[in-house]
Amino acid sequence: MGRTCILGDAAHPMLPDQSQGACQAIEDAAALGLIFGRDYTYTSDVAAGLALYEMVQKPRATKVQAASARARENINERIGFSSMKIGYKAAVAMGKLTIDEMNLYDMRRYVADEAAPQRRSRSDVISHKGAFVPLMSVSRMPEQWARM
Asked: pLDDT of 123-145, one tens digit each?
């Protein structure tokens, strides 16, 4: 019996209100590429690799999916709008999806944080668990960068 993995809309269909369906499918594919790539040894244990994939992608996709459903009813739930109306810290505290959360996501670091240390095939793949601090908030990005 073989293994099957679903991703994108097959795993987590999105309403179109956040325009994130294709983005989440690309993130799913990237996560699988990292997990089953040269930095880890999950190719020797596909079940463990797929479990890591689910652990890494399911919470993020679920949050995006929920935000998309809320945005159908309330335009203020759209990514970015949520933090403009009530402030960034309030948006985070209320569990709203923020533009920084979408744009500053570091999948490579997140996979490294969640992967079992014994699964690393290279010594330079280092976990930074709890160390993610955005260098610059997108909402504070210099105006000339925002126009690019």
From this structure: 555 555 544 333 334 444 444 34
Q: What share of the chain is helix, strand, coil (3-state, %, to 5)?
A: 60, 0, 40
Backbone angles phi, psi at 40, to 5 degrees: -130, 165
Q: What is the mean pLDDT of residues 6-15?
A: 86
- In Å, how far from its chain's centre is CA 134? 15
3-class secondary-structure state, position 120: strand
As a whole number of angstroms, the longest Cα–Cα distance in the chain is 55
User: What's the predicted TM-score (pTM) here?
Assistant: 0.72
Q: What's the full length of the chain, in residues?
A: 148
